[in-house]
Amino acid sequence: MPAAALFDVDGTLLDTSYWHTTAWTEALAQFGHTPAMARIHGAIGMGADQLLDHLLGEDRDHDLDAAITAAHQALFARFWPRLRAFDSAGALLRQLKQRGWTITLASSASGRDLEVMRRVLDADDAIDHATSADDVKASKPAPDLVHAALAKSGAKPGQALFVGDTPWDVQAAAQAKVACVAVLSGGFGERALRAAGALEVHRDVGDLLAHLDGSALADPAHYAALGR
């Protein structure tokens, strides 16, 4: 069985969290909803299905959900030319691949947005598989994306590590019995990430790469053996 490194994309590999916050703020406002931007940011990392329940309540009228989601996608697309990968994001994926990890992207983004972000990341030579919100019934913090990523990677839960930036990533991984290495680059604090159950917390992917030898991601063969 291979050892699998499963990666969130938004806020982890790409600096997109605040663009999503802005796009959701404007999309919600178009339909008369005005939650504080700080509250919207706190829901980033969820897919649209979970985010709208979190912000607007599960008992609301769901008839406009598709329209709100479409508005968010259109508004976020305005920012595509301004998206950038975090420094060392591609280098981290390539180093992990070189060490023997199977690399799978597990993003709550739509398939369309994930395609754009992969072009920005420019590291397809190091990526083995990818899943998006389009591939599952429920997005993070539900474990569906993590289960799908595990299935594609061929790894058991104990032989995989998830890398993400939000408590929702950590919770989704935990529900799938996968440990999570977290980064602070999405705007969530270390306390929140550790409270959710993060195994490690690093400043960003560059910091993780710099301290890789002291991380759980150091040696895939050793980690896979522990998970058997």
TrEMBL record:
<dbReference type="InterPro" id="IPR006439">
    <property type="entry name" value="HAD-SF_hydro_IA"/>
</dbReference>
<dbReference type="GO" id="GO:0008967">
    <property type="term" value="F:phosphoglycolate phosphatase activity"/>
</dbReference>
<protein>
    <submittedName>
        <fullName>Haloacid dehalogenase</fullName>
    </submittedName>
</protein>
<dbReference type="InterPro" id="IPR036412">
    <property type="entry name" value="HAD-like_sf"/>
</dbReference>
<dbReference type="InterPro" id="IPR023214">
    <property type="entry name" value="HAD_sf"/>
</dbReference>
<dbReference type="InterPro" id="IPR050155">
    <property type="entry name" value="HAD-like_hydrolase_sf"/>
</dbReference>
<dbReference type="GO" id="GO:0005829">
    <property type="term" value="C:cytosol"/>
</dbReference>
<dbReference type="InterPro" id="IPR023198">
    <property type="entry name" value="PGP-like_dom2"/>
</dbReference>
<dbReference type="Pfam" id="PF00702">
    <property type="entry name" value="Hydrolase"/>
</dbReference>
<dbReference type="GO" id="GO:0006281">
    <property type="term" value="P:DNA repair"/>
</dbReference>
